[in-house]
Protein: ATP synthase protein I
Amino acid sequence: MNMSITKRNFLSYLTILTLVGGGLGALVLHYLEPGYYFGGYPLIPVYFYIFGVFYIYMFDACRRHAPDKMVMLFLVAKVLKMIISVFLLIIYCVAVPDSAVEFLLTFLAFYLGYLIYESWFFFVFEWNQKLKKKSKKYETVA
Structure:
């Protein structure tokens, strides 16, 4: 399997974020606030990890085949993630109303954390692309 440096970096950081965030969240909910730990907690980091893997594969395919559409893909991915997340939140809250508040707050914390990470990663990628284009432009002029 051919894996680009961008994809490898994203997946490496995503894995670290998931393990550290999921582990810290489990420690906090299980030991510091044991009354707030709920059985569905492990599903939250898994959901965001799976969505992140899907996201980077779509991002990488777009980068290779339609680089001018990357900003649109980023926005579509964010909207898709939000819509799917709302549906999952509604389903969980209806199915398990006892731990709905804990689930919503924990899910929101993970959502914001992954949103910040993915936005930062995309911003840095686009910034580097612009710098490469700018340096390439100056190389051809000189």
About this structure: The helical segments are 5-32, 43-65, 70-95, 100-141. The two ends are 39 Å apart (CA to CA). Residues 32 and 130 are 45 Å apart (CA to CA).
